[in-house]
């Protein structure tokens, strides 16, 4: 028996009578989710099997109807991509450029046409300036089967190219580069970080900055305790082989792209002309350079998967108070609300987060990367190609130090290749981190105290006790911030790329969790946790 030639209501009546139609919410009575099927299907053609198929369809249909009825989002921009006829404020890496780093306008027009067409064939026609490639632009157009459509999630516009806030963000990146080798534990006393705080405090964007908030974000949790999250220190219980989170990091002073020739070559898509040198002895993350390298070599949801394994090892008391299996005598969480569901949810938000980020990157903002912006600062300094840089930048101590030490105004990079081949805003790492940290806050108790907090020893080769108290929610916020800030310290992203990116990732996760909630039959009141901006979220 099938549904061909009959309505869904008629089909349900034929297989089971009008009572089942009422149970499914098609003719009065309780909604489908109110009365679960109690008898297993004996055969593929049994009424129970037919009912199950319809109910599975309805779960998907209900979710689709919800998202179809949601309000369409607007997408504000800073106007930079269209403001300047020479595209000086736009992302143009891998395209042909002149010796001042100005893009070939015909090539950029081809890229805009490809963005409008949205086909692989159109993107293949974009001219190249070297061997580098644009990274997955079609990811901006793809669809998801859970949560909000990536094109219907929005974020604030980034600072304008010529604004004081944009100048302030580069000043922060200059200082982050100058302080890459300063241990986080020394931020309150080191001369470079003390100077950074004083210099940044002259910008309204950094009003109230202290050594304790230097190179950090704004969420409550990330401002408490050590700079680095406990989830980047604790051993990861990876089956029978625990992962000790010591790594080999680049040696102090391992900076790249410090000449204009290197900068322009990379903008054209050329291969790196320098290489990293790594320390011989593995140790825990202690400096900005270490953190920058962690987010250089991580995979998509590595931070989230590691944190999930650590959290699961802390036992049922660490689970969210709304977990329906807490306090149950005869049942335990596993397939639902246990390890498999947690790890699956962390992984499944990864691609959705990148899809949302890629839409904003390629089709809304096309924001210039910091490395290329600093080339604009350098051509303005030399007069070869002046650009509308806010004067507060050249008045900063960071600018003077960089020019004095390096001989130019370029922002040195922690990576030989500089930034990847996709626009800056938002940071993909930040959106990913915002998504998976939100998932973990939904499944675990954000107020749960981290057992036995630790920090690295002086030489970084061991962990020692940290006296302060830290919470799961705070350390998850800090993990997201560390992942975002690490890309800033590397020189490949702006502060606002990370701050707004984490919040976009939070939106992605909320949508996926909303749909996931509809798939379970436990007595579940919903996910409840504190958002990245301190807001109370209930799903």
Output the CATH homologous superfamily of the largest domain.
Vanadium-containing Chloroperoxidase, domain 2
Order of helices and strands: HHHHHHHHHHHHHHHHEEHHEE
Biggest sheet descriptor: 2 strands, antiparallel
Query: Class by helix and strand content?
Result: mainly alpha
Number of helices: 18
Per CATH, the class of the largest domain reads Mainly Alpha
CATH architecture verdict of the largest domain: Orthogonal Bundle
**Count the strands?**
4
Estimate the mean pLDDT confidence. Answer: 93
CATH topology of the largest domain: Vanadium-containing Chloroperoxidase, domain 2
Q: In angstroms, what is the radius of gyration?
A: 26 Å
User: Which range best describes the helical content: under 10%, 10-25%, 25-40%, 40-55%, 55-70% or over 70%?
Assistant: 40-55%
Distance separating the two termini: 38 Å
As for the number of domains, it is: 2
Q: Assess the beta-strand content as a share of residues.
A: under 5%
Low-confidence stretches: 1-34
Strand order of the largest sheet: 1-2
Shape: globular
Task: Describe the 3D structure.
By secondary structure, the chain is an all-alpha fold. It folds into two domains: 90-134, no CATH class; 139-538, Orthogonal Bundle (Vanadium-containing Chloroperoxidase, domain 2). 42% of the residues lie in helices and 2% in strands. It has 18 helices and four strands. The strands form two sheets. The chain has a two-stranded antiparallel ribbon with strand order 1-2. A two-stranded antiparallel ribbon has the order 3-4. The longest helix is centred in the middle third of the chain and has 27 residues, at 339-365. It starts with 7 loop residues before the first helix and ends with a strand. The model is unreliable at 1-34 (pLDDT under 50).
């Amino acid at each position: 028996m099938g549904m061909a030639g009959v309505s869904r209501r008629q089909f349900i009546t034929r297989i089971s009578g009008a009572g089942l139609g009422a149970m499914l919410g098609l003719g009065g009575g309780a909604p489908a989710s109110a009365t679960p099927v109690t008898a297993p299907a004996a055969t593929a053609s049994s009424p129970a099997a037919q009912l199950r198929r319809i109910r599975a369809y309805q779960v998907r249909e209900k979710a689709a109807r919800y998202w179809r009825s949601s309000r369409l989002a607007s997408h504000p921009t800073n106007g930079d991509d269209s403001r300047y006829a020479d595209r000086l404020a736009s992302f143009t890496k891998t395209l042909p450029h002149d010796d001042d780093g100005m893009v070939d306008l015909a090539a950029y027009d081809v890229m805009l046409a490809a963005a409008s067409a949205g086909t692989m064939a159109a993107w293949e026609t974009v001219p190249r300036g070297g061997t580098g490639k644009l990274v997955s632009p079609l990811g901006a157009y793809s669809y998801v089967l859970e949560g909000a459509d990536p094109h219907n999630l929005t974020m604030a516009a980034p600072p304008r190219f010529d604004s004081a806030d944009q100048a302030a963000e580069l000043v922060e990146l200059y200082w982050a580069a100058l302080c890459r080798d300063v241990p986080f534990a020394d931020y309150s006393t080191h001369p470079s970080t003390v100077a950074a705080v004083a210099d940044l405090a002259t910008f309204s964007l950094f009003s109230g900055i202290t050594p304790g908030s230097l190179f950090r974000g704004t969420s409550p949790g990330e401002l408490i305790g050590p700079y680095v999250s406990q989830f980047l220190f604790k051993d990861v219980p990876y089956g029978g082989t625990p992962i000790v989170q010591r790594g080999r990091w680049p040696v102090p002073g391992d900076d790249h792209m410090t000449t204009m020739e290197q900068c322009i070559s990379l903008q054209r898509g050329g291969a790196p002309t320098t290489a990293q040198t790594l320390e011989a002895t593995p140790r825990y993350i202690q400096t900005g350079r270490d953190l920058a390298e962690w987010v250089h070599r991580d995979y998509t949801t590595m931070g989230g998967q590691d944190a999930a394994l650590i959290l699961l090892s802390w036992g049922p008391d660490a689970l969210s108070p709304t977990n329906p299996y807490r306090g149950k005598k005869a049942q335990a969480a596993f397939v639902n609300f246990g390890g498999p569901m947690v790890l699956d949810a962390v992984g499944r938000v990864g691609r959705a987060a990148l899809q949302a980020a890629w839409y904003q990157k390629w089709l809304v903002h096309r924001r210039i990367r910091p490395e290329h912006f600093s080339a604009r600062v350098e051509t303005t300094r030399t007069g070869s190609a002046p650009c509308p840089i806010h004067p507060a930048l050249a008045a900063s101590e960071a600018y003077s130090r960089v020019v004095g030490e390096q001989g130019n105004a370029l922002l040195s990079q922690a990576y030989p290749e500089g930034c990847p081949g996709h626009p800056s805003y938002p940071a993909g790492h930040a959106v990913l981190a915002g998504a998976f940290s939100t998932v973990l806050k939904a499944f675990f108790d954000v107020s749960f105290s981290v057992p036995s907090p630790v920090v690295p020893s002086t030489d970084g080769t061991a962990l020692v006790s940290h006296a302060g108290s830290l919470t799961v929610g705070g350390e998850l916020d800090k993990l997201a911030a560390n992942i975002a800030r690490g890309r800033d310290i590397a020189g490949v992203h702006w502060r606002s790329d990370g701050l707004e990116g984490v919040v976009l990732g939070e939106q992605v996760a909320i949508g996926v969790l909303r749909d996931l909630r509809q798939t379970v039959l436990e007595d579940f009141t919903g996910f409840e946790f504190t958002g990245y901006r301190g807001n109370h979220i209930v799903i």
